[in-house]
Amino acid sequence: MEAEEGEVFDIELEQSLLEANRRLAEQNRALLDRYGVKAIDVMGSVGSGKTSLIARMVELLRDRYRIAYIAGDLTTTIDADAIARYGVPVVQINTGKECHLDANLVAKALKRLDLANTDLIFIENVGNLICPAEFPLGSHQRLVVVSITEGPYVVVKHPYIFMEADLAVINKIDLAEAMEIDVDKLEADIRTVNPSLRTVRTCCRTGEGVEEVIKALGL
Amino acid sequence: MHEFYVAKRLFDLALRAAQENEAERVVEVRVSIGRLSLVNPGQLSFWFRELSRGTILDGAELSFEFEEAEVACPSCGYRGPIGLEDRPEYHLALPTLRCPACGGKVRVLRGRDCFIRSLRVLRKGH
Questions:
Q1: CB nearest A15 (choices: B90, B97, B115)
Q2: What span, in angstroms and rounded, lies between the C-alpha atoms of A23 and B116?
Q3: Of B87, B105, B109, B88, the residue nearest B97 (C-alpha)
Q4: ipTM of this predicted structure
Q5: Mean pLDDT over all residues of chain B?
Q6: Is A70 in contact with A54 (CB distance < 8 Å)?
Q7: Of A134, A197, A214, B62, which one has the greatest count of Cβ atoms within 10 A?
Q8: Which of A136, A140, A163, A171 has its CA nearest to residue A45?
Q9: In this complex, which of B9, B97, B118 lies closest to A17 when CB atoms are compared?
Q10: Does A194 touch chain B (CB under 8 A)?
């Protein structure tokens, strides 16, 4: 039918605004699976101990797995350097101004790794408890690290990241008394948001609890 | 912060659809935001307006509807709205993956995504 001049009409679209990232995440997963590589996305605030946790895990696992590390960092190579000293391949993604890693950035990083000679990849997300929740990367597991110094309300203020996570780590457990933080209450908050989410308490400075994290990740 | 990314996608989809349909200009863009999505409508509108300047989308009204979160429980078969945990100290009720019926962990069926639903356009005269 010919439209009349100046006609107003509706165009139905029903298209997702987030699916482009999801599709790329699925492609990343397929690529990882093809090479038999397991990838773990480590999320958490700035200063929660993501890099320290990864460093501890790399230290304990490097004889058993061929490990690689992808570091999302706005401007520095501090984290990448910290892990590179364990002799594992490191890809640094300087996001510049972005608040999270996305599947496209990870796809580019994966191209720079020798996947055929890799068993395990730790992907360290940008320090942020909000945006990474909305952007799956294609990893097999998502781990969220919170620390005692983030205060008693860190979980209830950021429920979405705990909904997306497969494992929660409460780090800097040695500071609980000094900070007057009730760790049981933090764990209860995590269970309120996500009743089946496993929580492990760690002190990455000393390495306490890290073996339990490794076990919880099935490594 | 990532609203720019979402706004760009919204802008691209809306512009393409409008051009394919020979629109002279776009009057309204309707967007649905899931309650569990982290997209903020105010920030999305800002970026959409900025991107639209000087295009056939310039001046289009961005209207929002919110998709409620729906969950299903594999343990007891519950299917319905997501559970909300409300405490006096909360500004907003806390969404929870705890099943409102049995306390098990639910699966999210709807409410995570963000959609462009439709456009209202003015078609070119002949």
A1: B115
A2: 17
A3: B105
A4: 0.87
A5: 92
A6: no
A7: A134
A8: A171
A9: B9
A10: yes
- The span from the CA of B110 to the CA of B118, in Å, is 19
> What's the rounded Cα separation, in Å, for the pair A205 and A149?
14
Disruptive mutation site among A8, A12, A13, A185 for chain B (greatest number of B CBs within 10 Å): A13
DSSP string, A102-132: -HHHHHHHHHTS-GGG-SEEEEEPPSBSSGG
Instruction: Give the chain A residue whose CA is nearest to the CA of B119.
Output: A11
Best mutation site among A12, A17, A153 for testing chain B: the one with the most B CBs within 10 Å?
A: A17
Q: Are A57 and A50 in contact (CB under 8 A)?
A: no
Helices assigned H by DSSP within A19-150: 19-34, 50-61, 78-84, 103-111
pLDDT for B17-52, tens place per residue?
A: 999 999 999 999 999 999 999 899 999 999 999 999
The 10 Å Cβ neighbour count of residue B59 is 12
| Per-residue pLDDT at A165 | 96
A49 contacts A204 by C-beta, under 8 angstroms: yes
For residue A144 the two structure tokens come to 């969220």
pLDDT at A5 over 70: no
Separation of alpha carbons B14 and B28, rounded Å: 10
Q: Where are the alpha helices (DSSP H) in A89-202?
A: 103-111, 154-157, 159-164, 176-179, 183-193
CB nearest A10 (choices: B14, B38, B118): B118
The answer to whether B119 contacts A156, with C-beta atoms less than 8 Å apart, is no
Q: Terminus-to-terminus CA distance in chain A, angstroms?
A: 63
Residue A133's nearest CA partner among A94, A166, A90, A96 is: A166
CB atoms within 10 A of CB A76: 11
Tokens representing A142? 């998502």
